Amino acid sequence: MIVIVTSLVAMFLGACSDPAVVTATRGVRLEPGVTYSADLDDDGTSEHILVDEQHRSLLLTDGDTCYRSRDKWQVVEAHLGDTDHDGLLEVVTLLTSERGNHIGLFAYFGGEYRERLVTSSLHPLPVSLEVRVGEDGGDVILVTEESADEQTKGTVIYRWNGFGFRVLDTPIE
Protein backbone atom coordinates (compact mmCIF):
# COMPACT_ATOMS: atom_id res chain seq x y z
CA MET A 1 0.00 0.00 0.00
CA ILE A 2 2.82 2.41 0.85
CA VAL A 3 4.49 1.72 -2.51
CA ILE A 4 1.27 2.56 -4.39
CA VAL A 5 0.77 5.81 -2.46
CA THR A 6 4.43 6.78 -2.93
CA SER A 7 4.18 6.10 -6.68
CA LEU A 8 1.01 8.18 -7.00
CA VAL A 9 2.57 11.09 -5.10
CA ALA A 10 5.73 10.92 -7.24
CA MET A 11 3.64 10.85 -10.45
CA PHE A 12 1.53 13.82 -9.26
CA LEU A 13 4.53 15.89 -8.20
CA GLY A 14 6.36 15.01 -11.41
CA ALA A 15 3.44 16.30 -13.45
CA CYS A 16 3.48 19.51 -11.40
CA SER A 17 7.14 20.20 -12.16
CA ASP A 18 7.48 19.33 -15.85
CA PRO A 19 10.55 21.20 -17.21
CA ALA A 20 9.40 21.51 -20.87
CA VAL A 21 7.09 24.53 -20.89
CA VAL A 22 5.30 26.32 -23.76
CA THR A 23 4.10 29.92 -23.35
CA ALA A 24 0.33 30.18 -23.88
CA THR A 25 -1.98 33.14 -24.45
CA ARG A 26 -5.69 33.81 -24.65
CA GLY A 27 -7.48 31.50 -27.10
CA VAL A 28 -4.76 28.82 -27.19
CA ARG A 29 -5.89 25.20 -27.25
CA LEU A 30 -4.08 23.22 -24.53
CA GLU A 31 -2.85 19.91 -25.91
CA PRO A 32 -2.72 16.95 -23.49
CA GLY A 33 0.76 16.12 -22.23
CA VAL A 34 2.18 19.59 -22.92
CA THR A 35 2.97 21.92 -20.01
CA TYR A 36 1.92 25.51 -20.71
CA SER A 37 2.88 28.73 -18.98
CA ALA A 38 0.42 31.62 -18.45
CA ASP A 39 -0.32 34.14 -15.71
CA LEU A 40 -3.66 33.05 -14.24
CA ASP A 41 -3.66 35.20 -11.09
CA ASP A 42 -2.26 38.48 -12.51
CA ASP A 43 0.76 38.52 -10.19
CA GLY A 44 3.25 38.93 -13.05
CA THR A 45 4.51 35.34 -12.71
CA SER A 46 3.29 32.56 -14.97
CA GLU A 47 1.69 29.41 -13.64
CA HIS A 48 2.02 25.98 -15.25
CA ILE A 49 -0.99 24.28 -16.83
CA LEU A 50 -1.07 20.62 -17.86
CA VAL A 51 -3.82 18.34 -19.14
CA ASP A 52 -2.54 14.96 -17.97
CA GLU A 53 -2.69 12.50 -20.89
CA GLN A 54 -3.18 9.37 -18.83
CA HIS A 55 -5.79 10.55 -16.32
CA ARG A 56 -7.32 13.35 -18.45
CA SER A 57 -7.16 15.66 -15.43
CA LEU A 58 -6.13 19.30 -15.24
CA LEU A 59 -3.11 20.37 -13.19
CA LEU A 60 -2.44 24.02 -12.29
CA THR A 61 0.87 24.80 -10.57
CA ASP A 62 1.88 28.08 -8.92
CA GLY A 63 5.17 27.70 -7.04
CA ASP A 64 4.53 25.15 -4.29
CA THR A 65 0.76 25.16 -4.89
CA CYS A 66 -0.60 22.46 -7.17
CA TYR A 67 -4.32 22.12 -7.97
CA ARG A 68 -5.67 18.96 -9.63
CA SER A 69 -9.20 18.70 -11.00
CA ARG A 70 -11.55 16.18 -9.44
CA ASP A 71 -11.39 12.57 -10.60
CA LYS A 72 -15.07 12.58 -11.57
CA TRP A 73 -14.31 14.87 -14.55
CA GLN A 74 -12.27 13.83 -17.58
CA VAL A 75 -10.92 16.70 -19.70
CA VAL A 76 -11.93 16.23 -23.35
CA GLU A 77 -10.61 19.59 -24.54
CA ALA A 78 -9.11 22.70 -22.91
CA HIS A 79 -8.43 26.30 -23.98
CA LEU A 80 -7.30 29.54 -22.33
CA GLY A 81 -9.68 32.48 -22.23
CA ASP A 82 -11.33 35.14 -20.13
CA THR A 83 -14.90 33.99 -20.64
CA ASP A 84 -16.11 35.29 -17.26
CA HIS A 85 -14.75 38.77 -18.17
CA ASP A 86 -12.95 39.35 -14.86
CA GLY A 87 -9.62 40.26 -16.51
CA LEU A 88 -7.94 36.96 -15.56
CA LEU A 89 -7.34 33.98 -17.82
CA GLU A 90 -9.04 30.74 -16.92
CA VAL A 91 -8.80 27.25 -18.36
CA VAL A 92 -12.02 26.60 -20.29
CA THR A 93 -12.73 22.91 -20.63
CA LEU A 94 -15.10 20.45 -22.16
CA LEU A 95 -15.50 17.79 -19.48
CA THR A 96 -17.10 14.39 -19.49
CA SER A 97 -18.41 12.53 -16.46
CA GLU A 98 -20.77 9.64 -15.80
CA ARG A 99 -23.57 12.24 -15.88
CA GLY A 100 -22.72 13.68 -19.33
CA ASN A 101 -20.66 16.47 -20.86
CA HIS A 102 -20.10 19.83 -19.20
CA ILE A 103 -18.30 23.13 -19.67
CA GLY A 104 -15.84 23.82 -16.88
CA LEU A 105 -13.91 26.94 -15.91
CA PHE A 106 -10.82 26.41 -13.78
CA ALA A 107 -9.22 29.57 -12.46
CA TYR A 108 -7.69 31.58 -9.68
CA PHE A 109 -10.84 32.62 -7.85
CA GLY A 110 -11.49 33.58 -4.26
CA GLY A 111 -7.76 33.48 -3.46
CA GLU A 112 -7.17 29.93 -4.69
CA TYR A 113 -7.07 27.74 -7.79
CA ARG A 114 -10.30 25.80 -8.23
CA GLU A 115 -13.22 25.12 -10.47
CA ARG A 116 -14.86 28.50 -11.02
CA LEU A 117 -17.86 26.83 -12.59
CA VAL A 118 -18.85 23.43 -13.96
CA THR A 119 -22.18 23.39 -15.77
CA SER A 120 -24.79 20.74 -15.37
CA SER A 121 -24.90 18.12 -18.11
CA LEU A 122 -25.48 19.79 -21.49
CA HIS A 123 -27.96 18.65 -24.14
CA PRO A 124 -27.60 18.26 -27.07
CA LEU A 125 -24.29 16.56 -26.42
CA PRO A 126 -21.32 18.93 -26.86
CA VAL A 127 -18.46 17.26 -28.76
CA SER A 128 -15.91 20.12 -28.93
CA LEU A 129 -15.42 23.72 -27.90
CA GLU A 130 -13.36 26.75 -28.82
CA VAL A 131 -12.75 30.11 -27.15
CA ARG A 132 -13.03 33.19 -29.37
CA VAL A 133 -13.21 36.93 -28.99
CA GLY A 134 -16.86 38.02 -29.25
CA GLU A 135 -18.28 41.08 -30.98
CA ASP A 136 -17.88 43.19 -27.81
CA GLY A 137 -14.24 42.14 -27.31
CA GLY A 138 -15.06 39.69 -24.51
CA ASP A 139 -14.39 35.98 -24.89
CA VAL A 140 -17.21 33.59 -25.80
CA ILE A 141 -17.30 29.82 -26.02
CA LEU A 142 -18.28 28.15 -29.30
CA VAL A 143 -19.62 24.67 -28.62
CA THR A 144 -20.14 22.14 -31.39
CA GLU A 145 -23.10 19.90 -30.55
CA GLU A 146 -24.40 16.69 -32.04
CA SER A 147 -27.98 16.86 -33.17
CA ALA A 148 -30.63 14.29 -32.35
CA ASP A 149 -29.88 12.29 -35.51
CA GLU A 150 -26.14 12.19 -34.64
CA GLN A 151 -25.29 12.97 -38.28
CA THR A 152 -25.39 16.75 -38.27
CA LYS A 153 -23.62 19.10 -35.93
CA GLY A 154 -24.41 22.68 -35.04
CA THR A 155 -22.44 25.28 -33.16
CA VAL A 156 -23.86 27.45 -30.41
CA ILE A 157 -22.28 30.41 -28.64
CA TYR A 158 -22.15 30.63 -24.85
CA ARG A 159 -21.65 34.02 -23.18
CA TRP A 160 -21.03 34.69 -19.47
CA ASN A 161 -24.01 36.36 -17.75
CA GLY A 162 -22.48 37.02 -14.32
CA PHE A 163 -23.61 33.74 -12.73
CA GLY A 164 -22.94 31.22 -15.48
CA PHE A 165 -23.44 30.95 -19.22
CA ARG A 166 -26.35 31.55 -21.50
CA VAL A 167 -26.72 30.46 -25.09
CA LEU A 168 -26.90 33.33 -27.55
CA ASP A 169 -29.94 33.30 -29.81
CA THR A 170 -28.05 32.86 -33.06
CA PRO A 171 -26.51 29.41 -33.56
CA ILE A 172 -23.88 29.21 -36.29
CA GLU A 173 -23.22 26.38 -38.72
Care to describe what's here?
There is one protein chain. Strands 1-2-3-4-5 form a 5-stranded mixed β-sheet, with helices on one face. Strands 6-7-8-9 form a 4-stranded antiparallel β-sheet, with no helix packed on it. The termini are far apart. Helix content is 9%, strand content 47%. The chain has 173 residues and is mainly beta. β6 and β7 (90-97) form a beta hairpin. It is globular, with a radius of gyration of 16 Å. It has one domain (2-167).
Task: Give short descriptive properties of this protein.
single chain; 1 helix; mainly beta; 173 residues; disordered N terminus
Q: Outline of this structure?
A:
With 173 residues, the chain is mainly beta. It is built from one helix and 13 strands, in the order αβββββββββββββ. The strands form three sheets. The chain has a five-stranded mixed sheet, with helices on one face. A four-stranded antiparallel sheet has the order 6-7-8-9, with no helix packed on it. It has a four-stranded antiparallel sheet with strand order 10-11-12-13, with no helix packed on it.
